[in-house]
Amino acid sequence: MKRALTNPSFLLGAGIVLLVVAAAVFAPALAPHQPTAANLRARLAAPFQPAYLLGADAIGRDILSRIIFGARISLVVGVASVAIAAVIGTIIGLLAGYFGGVLDAVLMRLADIQLAFPFILLAITVIAVIGPGLWKLILVMAFAQWVQYARIVRGQVLSIRETDYVQAAASLGAGHARIVVRHILLNALTPVTVLATLGIANNILLEAGLTFLGLGVDPTIPSWGGMLADGRNYIERAWWVSTFPGLAITVTVLGFNLLGDWLRDTLDPRLQT
Amino acid sequence: MLRYLLRRLFQSIFVLIGITLFVSFTIRLSGDPAVAMFQGASAPTAEQLATIRKQLGTDRPFLVQYGAFLAGLVHGDLGTSFRSGQAVSSAVASRFPATLALALTSLLLSLALAIPLGVIAARRRGSGSDLAIRVFSLLGLSFPNFWLGIMLILIFAVKLRWLPPSGYSGPDSLVLPALTLGLILASTTTRLVRSSLLDVLGEQYVTTARSKGIGEQRVLYRHALRTALIPIVTYIGLQFGALLGGVVIVEQVFAWPGLGSLALNAISFRDYPTLQGTITVLAIFIAAINLVVDLSYALLDPRIRYA
User: Fold this and answer.
1) Nearest Cβ partner for A257 among B14, B142, B279
2) Residue ranges of the domains in chain B?
3) Which domains does chain A show, CATH number per domain?
4) For residue range B223-279, what is the model confidence (pLDDT) as tens digits?
5) Of A46, A113, A223, B252, which sits most exposed with the smallest number of CB within 10 A?
6) Which residues does residue B80 pair with via DSSP β-bridges, in sequence order?
7) Which pTM was predicted?
8) Residue A218 in contact with residue A133, Cβ under 8 Å?
9) Which CATH class is domain B95-271?
């Protein structure tokens, strides 16, 4: 832990993530304006003035306030989608790796398909049918990504299952449930933690991208991807409308990536790329 | 080699069947396309609906329709667009070159950046340039591609007026979208070139080559880099899907008339045959690239002979 406090990646990553979480939690107290309040007199107001620190958008909504509230959407989508995918994937990966058989074969074929089918195309197909929306987006991400977690847990289980200490536990009469949960699961969680942290970064990017395309979060809710879609139309007249939300996405994603890299280097040096 | 080729081909076909089955099934869940076609018009009678269903073939069971789709696919027939009434295959064929040009230019651009940068970072490990290159990779991993695109438009089209902001009017308009995708792909590839080269430079045959008095440049480029490229080729194969996903988004930023905008327009008009056809063609494209990547290993590494 002492080493963590002097590691620049950890400090910067954790600092950014804490800042974004604080913005999301205390949004109503921090935001200087209502994020959805239009003010026609402030249409495309320039940034760096006391009333509108980061400027205003085409209908005079305060960009800073919308960025602060937008942190809520990015975090909810990033964390919820990864949590669902990681839990489902870990359970299925454990079962497939430990018992093998049909489940294992099906899992590996699904993994092949998933590798060959980019998420954006899957999301376009599914969202075209079920329509856009915050929770639908989270479920589509979880549905597409649990396989990654299952695959990595399966690999871990296969190698841990053969280790001496698991064999010893089995010969001492430990049941399947005890071996899987106590001896295998806890050891298999290391790569899952790393993958999940990097996964949050990735899903924040995906959410912003799909919302930008109009396939993500409802455009009336302040979200970073939605703000960028608006800003694209005013790029000739008002650079700030699309610059600041993009900066918010990049910095947030960078924070989670730094944390993920640090976790990977600390928890499991073998996973280094 | 032949056995490997057949097995690999079989695997690709299996994956494609999985994807097309998933896409067809999902799209069928969207409800009755006959009803969708009457959207906005006066309510159709039951007879009108039945006629349309018969015309579209949607009155048949799902598996029969899927079979018909596959049979058509083999002949290059992707069905008829609900919206334009024209063959989906001709719409896809007219959009495909724009997507292909964008994807390949981005890929080449990313390699042209990533290989030299990765080599520099690996040779001067721990130096300032290594650190700078690592920061570049981390930033690229965190940049939303569509935001990078918007920022490039802001700088090079709006402020400097060097390049067109969007559209498809000659090689000029390819620069910004390809740069957007290329920079982002280069950032992750650089990281991999660096680590892969560092691994190889530690191997015994590299030490042997050096001890024989072969010059450092020759060791690096003839002995080490060639082997180090194998994981990079695999990575590019794996990233090709993600690259095409990025193309879909970036096409929207630059109003680029490719398959991505075709698919997105198809969604807004509920034109399911076009959506299904476009996604299927993109999936086949990705599977084909991955097949080529797998087979190209033998060219790079003489040790691999597909026993």
Assistant:
1) B142
2) 95-271
3) 4-271 (1.10.3720.10)
4) 778 778 878 887 887 788 888 889 999 999 999 999 998 998 888 777 888 888 998
5) A46
6) B87
7) 0.87
8) yes
9) mainly alpha
